[in-house]
């Protein structure tokens, strides 16, 4: 019997061709998930404010539409002060002030360096519409001096996702009790957030504002991912953990918009990304760190819903486990009676 065992095991293993095909498909999916949003990144209805006379504003809209079809969603504001306030409230990414004497393009690199770079290129295109005077560019909400390109925050998107996935995976393997897993996930989210925020804010200088506010956003992100994956694993086993991890990694991370902006991603996909924890966390983190919390309401709601979903899934998993134990105990009692 022992001599036949290796043969049986070999028969259960898939052919090499099948393994190669599956690995190739996985590699292709990974490439599409991460490269496609970046390769198709361009302005799509980017909110932009324009301050100036209605006639000139109309000409500007036509010019921008011709230069970048569908690139901007333009909102008229009365003056420069209103444009600045709209940027700080995160209602728009930037603004154009059509002052004949002092034309100006206002940007907010902290809200999205890629968008700010696009807006900074507008003065050359606007020179003809402002009497040949190229507007100056003013960064209203700049990135920190220690990280002027926002590289640290953009690179932090992947650790946020991996933190939640690795936390859930480790807890399912190392901790037996379901209740202890939930407590461990919450504790890991808090401790991990404090550590990551310290690195991003005090070492790399990529974040500003309240350390505790920034840490709170990161904790919500890690916690919502970890608890959701724990709940899926509790209900569906390893398949649930794998499915949840794939959604967060292959959809949540590339569609988060942290490296550009949600409006820069292919139509519809950027909006979808904002309903997943990585995208909501990225938007909330920018709002809390650089804009005093402006525009963080919806991202916090999304993160809260995912956190609640995770707790509900864990509760259902606990109820299912309890039911199984009761049924098993009854079967054992019946066997003993017989």
Automatic annotation (TrEMBL):
Protein name stated in the entry: Membrane protein
Organism: Kribbella alba
Keyword presence, Transmembrane helix: yes
Keyword annotations of the record: Membrane, Transmembrane, Transmembrane helix
Annotated transmembrane regions: 16-39, 151-171, 183-204, 210-227, 234-252, 300-319
Highest taxon, organism lineage: Bacteria
